[in-house]
Amino acid sequence: MDAPFTGSVFLGMSVDGFIARSDGDLAWLTGGDEAGGAPDDGEGGDFGFAEFVAGIDALVMGRGTYEVIAPMDQWPYEGKPVHVISTTLEPDPRITLHRSSDEAVAALTAAGYRRVYVDGGRTVHDFLAAGLIGDLTLSRVPVLIGEGHTPFGPLPADVLLEHVRTRTFPGGMVQTTYRVRRDA
Length: 184
Hints:
This protein is of the alpha/beta class. It has 5 helices and 8 strands, in the order βααβαββαβαβββ. Helices cover 20% and strands 28% of the residues. Strands 4-3-2-5-1-6-8-7 form an 8-stranded mixed beta sheet. The model has no long low-confidence stretch (mean pLDDT 90).
């Protein structure tokens, strides 16, 4: 069965594969006190994110990711429909709330979106397990944090990937894009 849309992932992570510390701290990624500054791409810190977001129709994320983004001074997804999976969040006019991944998938499919940005550890994992991810862009920040949250873990089957490209940046970040193989 073909996926109802193509899920696309764009994540920053430590070299050891974590997207946040166990307590949710992101200072190692965003350039907090102990991190010695945010990663540098030599062009203002975008790492291709604006281009990526311009190519998607909508976003879906979990509550934890939304709670990191919600207080930002400028909403980074202006003009894009944002769907959040949560049973506890209060309504926010910038988002559409769903109580489960299945409910979100049904809504995204019904809306006719073709390419959806999937963000947040648990959400990425759930969509990978369901076969809804078509490509992953993983940006490895040159730091080992030892433990934390990962979008990867037990899956019902191996997810075979095809390398698309790898880029390196002046600050040492290595960004690799993979396409999920559908022939497996």
